Amino acid sequence: MKQISPKGRTARRNTLPLKRTVLWAARSFHGALGLYVGIAFEAGQLSVALTTAAGLRWVPARDALTDAEAQIWASTGFRRSAPRA
Questions:
Q1: Which of 20, 53, 55, 73 has its CA 20 to 30 A from that of 35?
Q2: Does the residue 61 lie in any domain?
């Protein structure tokens, strides 16, 4: 049985494309920066989608929500499909 070194495994893992996971809020949340409608997780970073007159704006979650607000909003539910307009 051929052994794969941890170094080789790491090198291959680092070449995989990054995947962005987006979840849309079942209910929007009014926060300090405006109306939050979704979250995205990519490369270990969590972002929040805000609605603006120009469309969606993504900001780091740490800039948009306190831990308490995040827990409250998370309890309302999220889904993978985009909200209907």
A1: 20
A2: yes
